[in-house]
Structure formats: C-alpha cells, structure tokens
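Researcher: Sequence of Small ribosomal subunit biogenesis GTPase RsgA follows. Predict its structure.
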Amino acid sequence: MPQGQIRKALSGFYYVYDDGKIIQCRARGVFRNRGESPLVGDFVDYTVEGANDGTITVIHERKNNLVRPPIANIDQAILVFSIKEPDFNTILLDRFLVVLESFYIEPIICLTKSDLMDEQMEKTMDAYIKDYEQIGYPILVTFKDDPAIDEKIAPLLKEKTTVLAGQSGVGKSTLLNTILPSLDLKTGVISNALGRGKHTTRHVELIEVCGGLLADTPGFSSFEFDLMEKEELSKCFPEFVEKQDACKFRECMHVKEPKCAVKDAVETGDIKEYRYKHYLQFLDEIVERKPRY
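Model: Prediction complete. Tokens:
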C-alpha cells in the first residue's frame, strides 16, 4: 500500500506527498468513529482512486502532536522574539520553552530587531543570551534587513520539520518572507504561506524550504499548560533536571521541601532566580487549573 506524508489539510481534504506527487485524499470514516483525525505532518498509508485521488487508511504512530495548531511529527521550533517593540519577555519565552520541552520539540531562539537596542539594553540582553545558552538553548540574533539571515537559518532547516512561533509583531512574517524568496517562489505562494490576502484561508501547511519542511502556523502565538501534570513541569526545565537527583526527596516539587538541590542552586545563582519564579508561577497555574471533563 502506498505511503506518504500529509503536507496540507483544507476543507476536509488531506494533501498527501508521495515521491514528488501530491495526492488529494479523504480520510476513512473509521477515524471519525474512533474520535481520531489525520493531521498535517502525519505519515499515512492510502489507497489510490483515480489519477490523483485517494483515501487515507492508516495513520502511523506520531513522534508528537500539537492540538493548537493541529500538526504532528515536529522536530524543532524557531521561537521568534523581538528585543524591542514588543520588548523581550522572559516569562513568555519560558512558557514556550516549557511546552516545547514537554512535546520533545527542540527549540531555537531567534531574537529580532537587535538594531533597536541602546547600550543599556545591550548589556541586559547579553546577560539573558548567556543564561539561555548556558541552559543549552541555541540563539540567533538578527536585525532588520540582515543580509546573512539566510546563512544563519538555512542550515538549521535541513532535513528537519520546523515550526515558526512567536507573538504578533515580532518579525515572524518578515523572517518567513526572507527565507522563502531564496527559493525564487512567486509572491502569491509567499502570501498563501503567510495567510495574507482577503480570500486566503488560514491553514496549516508544510512548505519545502532549504532541504527541510517549514510550517508557519496560524494561532501559534501562546501556549497553555492544558495537558501538563504538575509532576511533569520541573522535567521541562533542563537546569532543574541536572540538579534534581541530588534532592532529598525523589518526588521533590522544589517548593517547600527541605534539602532541595534546585532551591540550593537558586541560592548560589547556578539556576537563575527569574527562571525559578516562572516555574512557581506555572506550577500555580497547573494546580489551579479547572478539571476538564
């Protein structure tokens, strides 16, 4: 049975890529009966009906999948954050990082608008960059009309499925516009990829870019901790994971417990205090979350 990957979903149709061809498919009713739904990024088996039509019969096991936006099998996310206008926001960045960690998606932090920094801000940002790099997160710093942006981004996209995420106004569209013209794509394709234009439907689509697949996804500007249990949260802070085996209690939540290695590391500065404060804030959110039925 032929196999392929869903590259686009629109109006009940799934566009499956298989060896250079796109097959327009419907999904079998059995998925609906089971409460399942194929997602962009899914690897699937399908049957052929006619030249370019088919039916999806099997959805292969997923590496991961997000609910909002609905997309599966993501390798990495480029988190686009501006340094100014809007100002760099560590709590929002940490929210993104925690949720990506929980889905085993590798984050790459891309800081835009570095040309708007004054001297004081440069010092502050240098300290933040050092903090996040120390944790192990790769960081790119770009500025308006950066001629080297292609050289910085292109190698990261090769053989990966990547999503772009970030608040509106941080330069996400500009970044995508810069990456896509390197393929000599027509303006219309770029407009569709960005979901611009009066009649363009916002949908999730994987586009071939720089030897990989890139999704600019609608509604991918904030994250909730809907699916996370409080015990999972500390595992999404890599610097906590490094220390927590030395905690006195195996199930230490790093809040009020005695002999907590994470709290000790906050005291010594090995773990940054603002990261620990964000952890406590996120923990409160999860604990106070209303049960879902």
